[in-house]
Amino acid sequence: MQRWVVLFVVGVLFLSSFAFAEEFQEVERVPVRSGICSACSSCQGFDVDKALSEINLKIENLTRLINQNEAELQKLYTELNRTKSVETLEKIVKLEDEVQLLKSELEAYKRQKLSLELVKKYTRKTPYGVEVLYYRLPREDVLVRQYIEKVHPVRKDVDLDWLIAFYRQGGELTFDEHIETDMELKETIKEIKAGNATVEDALGLIEKKKQIWDRIYAYLEERDKLQTLKKLKELGRKQIIMKTAGIQSLAYNFGGINEGSSCLSVTCYFDYGDKDTLPGVNDPSNAESAPLVYYSFFYPVAVWVGLYDSSSPNATKFWGEYCTYEFPSTSTDVKKYWDWAVEKANSRGFYSFKDAGSIQVKLFYDGSAYNPKEGTYQESNIIWQFECNKTGCWVINYRLKLLSEPDLGHYAEYYKLYVYAGVLSCCKNGDVGSFCKWANKHCGGCFAPDESKSQNFVICTRDEYGSQCGWDWIIKFG
User: Fold this and answer.
1) Are 232 and 300 in contact (CB under 8 A)?
2) Among residues 29, 171, 31, 19, which one has the least CA distance to residue 101?
3) How far apart are CA 133 and CA 324, in angstroms?
4) Burial class (CB in 10 A: 0-12, 13-18, 19+), 326
5) Do the beta carbons of residue 319 and residue 307 sit within 8 Å?
6) Contact 204, 192 (CB under 8 A)
7) Which domain of life is it from (predicted)?
8) 3-class SS at 188?
9) Alpha carbons 261 and 268: distance in angstroms, whole number
10) DSSP secondary structure string, 113-125?
């Protein structure tokens, strides 16, 4: 799978430039890609950071060349202002066109850089190939809602394809306007030579051409951004289908949790105390006294599901676990975790699980929380928990119900925490990157790091959150 995934991702990165070259090849000189991925073998080692570095270097060199040419243009404009010479005007028009070709190339690289940055943000390398972080991608309806308010607030029957076509057509129509203006400029120069127009008329058209190009680049940037997100969304959906087509055995990396390893660094085991622990309580029944903790942002990382040989989760009856990246799409989209658990139990011959068993589900988010004891922000997980059996899914006492959009990132929120301190393993690699961090090692993976070495569960009081708090059904089955 690794080979076709990487090829797909590489294709996403350079699609926009080739498309623009085909549409406007007479005007924009988009260079053929260098040897970043010249053969299938090298595609498997595709390095986004290296590609970004190469593109940044090209951008830097082009910017330097453009600045040199624009310095020469300023000299010509000064001369034209003094002499009103048609010959100088023609030199300016020629050099402006050359500069615009360089700018077109520069803008193409900038769009490639934008695509690379999006790919870097929403993918990661795993032992099995490039993984698209599907549930971190912005939802299509959210994207459409943001854009449609800007471009066509009346339309309702709009999707990503419509928006991509809108920006593509906007670029094409604006390019037609550029051609008309360019022809008008050539005619104006003839009229100047015949004494029927002035140099100022030509200068106005030169400025108009520049403004038209700025509009073209703006259209193309939005088109390519949406096109990249669409391609990543399509690839991520295909990967999910491939993963869920066959439910894997218990305690395996169901959903593609990236396996990490332990870390024996002295740094990790130095000062095991609670100096960095976030403000919270060590017993969820003390929610009333828990201070509010400010999270500047947090985003979904992974879901852990524990299976129990009891009608409600009991630590002494733990039977197995699985993990997945698939978060609920709504606050009630939770039955799938129970269905997957039943399917897994059946595959192991535990047929009575569907009637007598239960599951505990933890939705792990990674983010940044403010620690007033340290006076700084720190990396911190935050966990929503619920439980299910054959009857349905519910939230236990003192736990907060799920977010209305649990599969999206969230910003600037305050929560009370039950801090389960000092329980995380010291992991490296996996979803925590190459450095040694305290992280969960569920399912043999390594995710949801936390500087306090703790799991942080969202808790609340009935008085504070009403029906959103305490024992209550999320959804009943049947």
Assistant:
1) no
2) 29
3) 11
4) buried
5) yes
6) no
7) Archaea
8) helix
9) 13
10) HHHHHHHHHHEEE
* Angle between helical axes of 86-122 and 48-83 (0-180°, round to 10): 160
On whether the CB atoms of residues 67 and 59 are closer than 8 A, the answer is no
> Within 13 Å and on the Cβ side, how many CA atoms surround 240?
14
- Residue 14 buriedness (CB in 10 A; 0-12 / 13-18 / 19+): buried
- pLDDT tens, 265-283? 656 654 445 556 789 999 9
Look at residue 3 and tell me whether its pLDDT is greater than 70. no
This prediction has a pTM of 0.54
Under 8 Å between Cβ of 250 and 321 = yes
Assigned token pair, 475: 């959804």
Reported as half-sphere exposure (CB side, CA atoms, 13 A), residue 388 has a value of 26
Residue boundaries of the structural domains of the chain: 2-244, 260-476
Task: Give the tens place of pLDDT for each residue, 9-40.
Answer: 434 443 444 333 333 333 333 333 333 333 32
Q: Report the candidate in 394, 389, 392, 396 with the shortest Cα–Cα distance to residue 345.
A: 389
341: three-class secondary structure by DSSP: helix
Phi, psi of 177 (to 5 degrees): -65, -35
Residue type, 388: C
Secondary structure class of 227 (helix, strand, coil): helix
How far apart (Å, rounded) are the C-alpha atoms in residues 274 and 373?
11
Contact 237, 8 (CB under 8 A): no
Q: What is the pLDDT of residue 269?
A: 57
Q: How far is CA 321 from its chain centroid?
A: 28
Q: Tell me the two tokens of residue 275.
A: 């100096």
Please give the angle made by the CA atoms of 471, 473 and 477, to the nearest 5 degrees.
150
Residue 62 has pLDDT above 90, yes or no: yes
User: What is the spatial distance between Cα 325 and Cα 136, in angstroms, rounded to a whole number?
Assistant: 10
Phi and psi at 146, nearest 5°, equal: -65, -45
Residue the block writes with tokens 């942002």: 297
- The contacts of residue 86 (CB under 8 Å, 6+ apart) are 189, 192, 193, 199
- pLDDT band for position 466 (cuts 50, 70, 90): confident
The β-bridge partners of 299 are 366
